Amino acid sequence: MVNHVEQLIASSVAVTPTDTPALERFQTSHQDATEMGVRTLWVVFVIMTISSVAFYAMAYRVPVQKRLFHILTAFITTFAAISYFAMANKDGISYIVADVYSYNQTELGIPTTVTITVLREVYWARYVDWSVTTPLLLLDLSILAGLSGANILVAIVADLIMILTGLFAALTEDEATSWGYYAIACLAYLVIIYQLAVQGRSMAASKDAKTGTFFTAIGGFTLFLWTVYPIVWGLADGAKIAGVDAEIISYAVLDVLAKPVFGFWLLFTHDAMPSTSVSLEGFWSHGLSKEGGVRLDDDEGA
Questions:
Q1: pLDDT of amino acid 8
Q2: Higher pLDDT among residues 68 and 165, named by residue
Q3: Which of 90, 101, 176, 247 is the most exposed place for a label (fewest CB within 10 A)?
Q4: CA 269 – CA 93 distance, rounded (Å)
Q5: Chain Cα centroid distance, residue 292
Q6: Predicted local distance difference test score (pLDDT) of residue 137
Q7: How far is CA 32 from CA 113, 122, 279, 291, in A?
Q8: How far, in Å, CA of 263 to CA of 72, rounded?
Q9: How confident is the model at residue 13 (pLDDT cuts 50, 70, 90)?
């Protein structure tokens, strides 16, 4: 009887290979910029800085009344230089979960499930840059075309909506929500296209043929570049198809074209084409009048 009980106990505690519990192991993988990506950020920082110095020098050569385009354009590359300096120094960066996947393997005879969480760099400093520089760029184009204050306000608000929803889309880990923000940004961009391509082109053409032709060229150039940005976003931050280095290089090329190249084209043509000149008197040139009021022009009192 005792032997029978001992056999029952032994059989109840025997461990077979199929009873061995499986293990779980968790790992983290990072999608970071490599040396190539960081070098690209430094190169663009240098380009933006040199361009800013050149634009300020060009502004110094003309009377203060005629410096509006120069100042706006110099501010664009100045803010861009600060942004690229931050990104090159690994500032203005966050990480989001780009992917999670698992695979099974055997470790020391024990079945193990390994779960990998992939974290991807998101350069939110880039969106801070765009939230300042793109409205300034729109001011350049809007003033060149002669758009009304109402049209300019609509374009700038649409631009801010586009940039902010793009930032939310980049930082959101839920895929459906991210693409929802992306769709809102694209709708806002359509408003900008309407203001520049329809309203802006009409106003520029009403000035004179040269101004109309120049605005069509530089405005079309800008809209073409701005249309490529969301494509890059869709492949990089959106679908996660393009790597971080590819994202950095793509945006770097677009930023150099959309800011320094745009700026030199605008200012050199503006200086050679009197019809595009904007002369600001009053408070812009002379500050407050003796009475302490803001003078709008030379003929109006305070």
A1: 43
A2: 165
A3: 176
A4: 37
A5: 41
A6: 97
A7: 25, 9, 48, 58
A8: 9
A9: very low
